[in-house]
Design brief:
Blueprint: E1 3-7, H1 14-22, E2 39-44, H2 48-57, E3 61-63, E4 66-71, H3 85-92, E5 96-102, H4 118-150, H5 155-169, H6 181-187, E6 198-203, H7 211-220, E7 226-230, H8 232-239, H9 243-252, H10 259-270, E8 273-279, E9 283-290, H11 295-302, H12 304-308, E10 310-317, H13 318-324, H14 327-332, E11 337-339, E12 349-355
Parallel strand pairs: 1-4, 1-5, 3-9, 5-6, 6-7
Antiparallel strand pairs: 2-4, 8-9, 10-11, 10-12
Helix pairs in contact: 1-8, 2-13, 4-5, 4-7
The structure holds guanosine-5'-diphosphate and magnesium ion (MG).
Length: 357
């Protein structure tokens, strides 16, 4: 399961967002540092399409895709404003970062630690991540240079680490530079924070639109990073509603599928993952594979027998299935195609694997 760490300055809405995503109801408070230990939870990837498909198919059970979430406490003092050194190692284990930036104004929630300028916060956090990486790479680079002088085979490794160390010393996150596969594999054990995909979450508040802020954040962070806007508090309230009421609320606010779905999808994208589906009377199931996965690989996610005995896949898009009123109707209408083992699975494909073992 993909793991995502939630970061940000104190009192910006990290735990609120965590609660909205996990439905775990961890304590939030209108003062900084209310989270003393990391909260760990599993978020069901919100997916209105999956819910609707289950409805038209009459599936008895719905299985959402999942991500693991870590809500890290912010610890004050000693020249770091967001990342507690004692949690850095934990952070390096996660695959992606969701960075919460406060844009909402609320006099009952102090903002002295963060301010309400999301661009300033993005700059601060990016710099902290870069400095944390710079320390690790400077140390490793020194050691690698010594190793390389005794063993010529280690020269290329030392050169890669030294180059990255130089980039970081200039205050540039590693993600902002392109690296060869060889260089990337040299960095792997150091698990650089600035090479992890990051999704920037502008917490704009219930009545802020945040569009301008999001645009400015996008210009600040490394090119290609995704920026989403939401109100963590509104999402936390929405998460407590049943699906129909939630859909109505989102529709009333013009939020479409809801901001959480957008955020999680952006994270999936950043991680190079996508969802495909299987549908039946027993269950409607969202599965996760890497982008570029073939039909045969996707079959292996469902069951190893399906991969081994793969014959062909029948495929339609989720929207086609919903519009037709179910898989069988879709097939009758001719919207199901047949694909072979090398077909590259697309986001929102519904897949029926034909196999024999
Ligand atoms: N008005 C408003 N308050 C929010 C929003 N998101 C979070 N808060 C409040 O901000 C306070 C701090 O939130 P919390 O999630 O504990 O922040 P953390 O320190 O980043 O984990 C809480 O009182 C939240 O209810 C929002 O979108 N609008
Ligand atoms: Mg918190």
């Amino acid at each position: 399961m993909a793991g995502v760490a939630i970061l940000g300055l104190p009192n910006v809405g990290k735990t609120t967002l965590f609660n909205a995503l996990t439905g775990l109801g961890a304590a939030t408070a209108p003062h900084p540092f209310s989270t003393a230990e990391p909260n760990l939870g599993v978020a069901r990837v919100p997916d209105a399409g999956l819910d609707r498909a289950a409805e038209v198919e009459g599936s008895r059970k719905i299985v959402h895709a999942q991500i693991e979430l870590l809500d890290l406490p912010t610890v004050a003092g000693e020249g770091h404003s967001g990342l507690a050194p004692r949690f850095l190692a934990r952070l390096r284990e996660e695959e992606a970062l969701a960075v919460v930036l406060r844009a909402f104004e609320d006099p009952s929630v102090p903002s002295d630690e963060s301010g309400t300028d999301p661009v300033e916060q993005a700059e601060t956090l990016l710099l902290e991540l870069t400095v944390a990486d710079a320390e690790v790479f400077a140390r490793r680079s020194e050691r690698a240079a010594k190793e390389a002088s005794a063993d010529a085979g280690k020269k290329r490794f030392a050169a890669a680490v030294a180059k990255a160390s130089g980039v970081l010393e200039e205050g540039t996150p590693l993600r902002a530079v392109s690296w060869t596969d060889e260089e990337r594999s040299a960095f792997r054990d150091l698990a650089p924070l600035t090479l992890k995909p990051a999704v920037w979450v502008v917490n704009a508040g219930e009545d802020g639109d945040g569009a301008g802020a999001a645009e400015r954040v996008a210009e600040t962070v490394p090119a290609g990073d995704t920026v989403v806007t939401l109100s963590a508090r509104l999402e936390e309230e929405a998460a407590e509603l049943d699906p129909a009421d939630r859909a109505e609320l989102y529709e009333g606010l013009g939020l479409g599928e809801g901001a959480l779905a957008t955020m999680v999808r952006a994270t999936y994208d950043a991680l190079g993952l996508l969802s495909f589906y299987t549908l039946g009377p027993k269950e409607a199931h969202a599965w996760t594979v890497r982008q570029g996965a073939t039909a045969r690989e996707a079959a292996g996610k469902i069951h190893s027998d399906l991969e081994r005995g793969f014959i062909r896949a029948e495929i339609a898009t989720l929207d086609e299935v919903i519009a037709s009123g179910g898989w069988d109707a879709c097939k009758a209408a001719g919207c199901v195609r047949v694909e072979g083992k090398d077909y590259v699975v697309a986001e929102r494909d519904v897949v029926l694997v034909r196999f024999s073992v």
